[in-house]
Amino acid sequence: MGISVAEANQPVPESRRAQLRAIAMAYFDGLAKKDVSAVPWHENVTLRTPLAPEGIETPLRGRAAVITWFAGLYPVLGEIKVLDHYINEEMTGICTEALVGITDPAVTLRVADRFTVTADGKIIDQENHYDPRPAVIQRTGAMGTGAATAIDIVDEASEESFPASDAPAY
């Protein structure tokens, strides 16, 4: 008695868990190294994040756009510490809890980033959950200008990362 070809092609649950953890760690390692080019994003990935140019409701689309957007954050990224991973029952997604240090202003953001991963190990959808207010409050000394100030942090980082003649295409 053997297994069918279809069963043989299915990932063993523990190896899929390991694959999902490795994919999430590739992302956080990329942030820590300030180089996300090795993150296994699908060419048609979507990313939702509070600091995206048009907010969380309008995702960034495409691997190149996502890599370019993260490159704009490199100057303000500090220490990254992964706390835990949570994998859904279908093993199609992982949510990773982490602490992400920001250097200007000096604060730590608590994040829960969710990744939907294809069977071949590519991130097809990513949604970053965090409260940007600690960075906004520290930067402005008050609340009330949150969204504009949060975007200013990304804009300033982008200006520091790219020469004016080679600005990132958001």
Question: Going across the major beta sheet, what is the strand order?
Answer: 2-1-6-5-4-3
CATH class, named Alpha Beta
* Tally of contiguous helical segments: 5
The main β sheet shows up as: 6 strands, mixed
User: In percent terms, what proportion of residues is strand?
Assistant: 25-35%
Q: Which secondary-structure class do the elements indicate?
A: alpha+beta
Mean pLDDT, to the nearest integer, reads: 82
Shape: globular
End-to-end distance: 56 Å
The arrangement of helices and strands along the chain is HHEEHEEEEHH
CATH architecture: Roll
Number of strands: 6
Radius of gyration (CA) equals 18 Å
Are there runs of 5+ residues with pLDDT below 50, and where? Answer: 1-5, 142-151, 155-170
